[in-house]
Amino acid sequence: VGIFGNVQQQTLNVVYDVAGGKLGFASAGCS
Amino acid sequence: DESTLKNHFHTIQISSLLPASVCSPSTKDHSKGASLKVVHKHGPCSHLSKEKANAATVTQILTRDESRVNSIQSRLSFNLVQKNTLKNSKASIPAKSGSSIGSGNYIVTIGLGTPKKDLSLIFDTGSDFTWTQCEPCARYCYSQQDPTFDPSLSKTYKNITCNSAQCSALGSATSASPGCATTTCVYGIQYGDSSYSVGFFGSETLTLTPSDIFPNFLFGCGQNNRGLFGASAGLIGLGRDSLSIVSQTASKYGKFFSYCLPSRSSSDGYLAFGKEGTSGALKFTPLLSNSQNPSFYFIDITGIKVGGTTLSISQSVFKTAGAIIDSGTVITRLPPAAYTPLRTAFRQQMKQYPMAQALSILDTCYDLSKYSTVSIPKISFLFGGNVEVPLAANGILYAGSASQVCLAFAGNSAASD
Question: By CB atoms within 10 Å of each CB, which of B57, B149, B154, B302 scores lowest?
Answer without folding.
Answer: B57
